[in-house]
Design brief:
Number of helices: 12
Number of strands: 8
CATH class: Alpha Beta
Strand content: 5-15%
CATH superfamily: Aldolase class I
Strand order of the largest sheet: 7-6-5-4-3-2-1-8
Oligomer: single chain
Order of helices and strands: EHEHEHEHHEHHEHHEHEHH
CATH topology: TIM Barrel
Largest sheet: 8 strands, parallel
Distance between the termini: 30 Å
């Protein structure tokens, strides 16, 4: 593996993946309350970036609210089509997401891989589509419990990342999210040491394939049963730059507390 250089200048990113929850009216109320809560608490959005990932039907409402009220929140989509336009019923083009001012798009989430059979090749095509439309892909990788037992902690995530980067150039702006499938929704998160071990291997792949500069600036998130009680441990690790939060992102107080980890743990 290539040498990995620590880069403390990466801005942490806390991303809330709502999955198939909250309609557009609920989304408006949640985003307003989240922004107010963080503002009232004096959160510095330049020190920890916050992004939400609503269902497609909510995106226009969220975009309008954030734009009109100048809220310091980012937002993105939960998936994107590999195709730009055409006869692809039910698909959403990256061009549409760009027009809605989305900053990010989640690609290759384990639920897309397992429930919809997405392959590494399809993930790579979607990553390329996101970059074509100036969206930052959050590339999800992670192993099942069976993978962990058979191959060890980093083999599958590393292979998935290599596949996802098949069409990516050294100029790419990407985020990588390590989400061990066995930890998602289980209440049993990986340990900070386990997350760091895999994150370091993923960064080494970035060095090898995209170069030191891209590897240094690319944020690697941990996801899987993240909550306010355990976020600090992950954020102390040198190669973990944030979290992709699932269920806890739907709990306003809990998610705001995760975002504010620097305040309540003294980091």
């Amino acid at each position: 593996m290539a040498t990995v250089t620590s880069q403390p200048g990466r801005t942490p990113l806390i991303a809330g993946n709502w999955k198939m929850n909250l309609d557009h009216l609920q989304a408006i109320a949640f985003v307003q309350k989240l922004a107010w809560s963080l503002k009232d608490a004096g959160h510095d959005f330049t020190s920890v970036e916050v992004s939400v990932f609503p269902p497609f039907t909510d995106l226009r409402s969220v975009q309008t609210l954030i734009s009109a009220d100048k809220l310091p929140l980012a937002f993105g989509a939960q998936d994107v089509s590999a195709h730009d336009s055409g006869a692809y019923t039910g698909e959403i083009s990256g061009a549409f997401l760009n027009a809605l001012e989305c900053s990010y798009v989640i690609i290759g989430h384990s639920e897309r891989r397992t429930l919809h059979g997405e392959t590494d090749e399809q993930v790579a095509d979607k990553v390329a589509a996101a970059l074509r439309h100036n969206l930052i892909p959050i590339i999800c990788v992670g192993e099942t419990a069976e993978d962990l037992e058979q191959h060890g902690p980093s083999a599958v995530p590393v292979a998935q990342l290599r596949g996802a980067l098949a069409h990516v150039t050294t100029a790419a702006d990407i985020v990588v999210a390590y989400e061990p499938v066995w930890a998602i929704g289980s209440g049993q998160a990986a340990t900070p040491e386990q997350a760091e071990q895999v994150a370091a291997q993923l960064r080494a792949v970035l060095v090898e394939l995209l170069g030191q500069d891209v590897a240094d600036k690319t944020r690697i998130l941990y996801g899987g049963s993240v909550k306010a009680a355990n976020i600090a441990g992950f954020m102390r690790e040198p190669n973990v730059d944030g979290a992709l939060v699932g269920g806890a992102s739907l709990d306003l107080a809990e998610f705001a507390s995760i975002v504010r980890y620097q305040k309540h743990v003294g980091l």
